[in-house]
Amino acid sequence: QVQLVESGGGLVQAGVSLRLSCAASGSIFSFNRMSWYRQAPGKQRELVATITSAGNTNYADSVKGRFTISRDNAKNTVYLQMNSLKPEDTAVYYCNVVAMAVSGAKYDYWGQGTQVTVSS
After folding, report:
1. Distances 43 to 5, 26, 112 between C-alpha atoms, Å
2. Cα Rg for the chain, rounded, in angstroms?
3. DSSP secondary structure, the chain, as one string
4. 111-120, pLDDT tens digit by residue?
5. 74, CA 20 to 30 Å: which among 9, 32, 51, 119?
6. What is the pLDDT at residue 16?
7. How far apart are CA 24 and CA 35, in angstroms?
């Protein structure tokens, strides 16, 4: 069983920065791909950024150049540094982790979500 604990959301004004954190714990062999998704009211959940165990990253076009995803493998934690926030970044942000068991089986886990609200 894997648990994901997210933190760092809040209410901020446009233009400022926030950093989200997601700490993974549990009886698992390794954590592979770690990602951040977001879901705004009335919209579908969308991928914001992802990082592989090798450190390769990918971003949604809407956040490229403003957001940075990183991970600390020793702490099994993934971060999302969000700079130059815009009102359209307002959403619930979810951490997603693909974990691999000793058997080689892969499992998909989601955090509880953290609210980010950006006022204009």
Report:
1. 24, 31, 18
2. 14
3. -EEEEEE--EEEETT--EEEEEEEEES-SEEEEEEEEEE-TTS--EEEEEE-TT--EEE-TTTTTTEEEEEETTTTEEEEEE-S--GGG-EEEEEEEEEE-TTS-EEEEE---EEEEEE-
4. 999 999 999 9
5. 9
6. 97
7. 12
What is the average pLDDT across 12-21?
97
- Report residue 57: phi and psi, to 5°: -120, 160
DSSP string, 39-61: E-TTS--EEEEEE-TT--EEE-T
Whether 70 has a pLDDT exceeding 80, the answer reads: yes
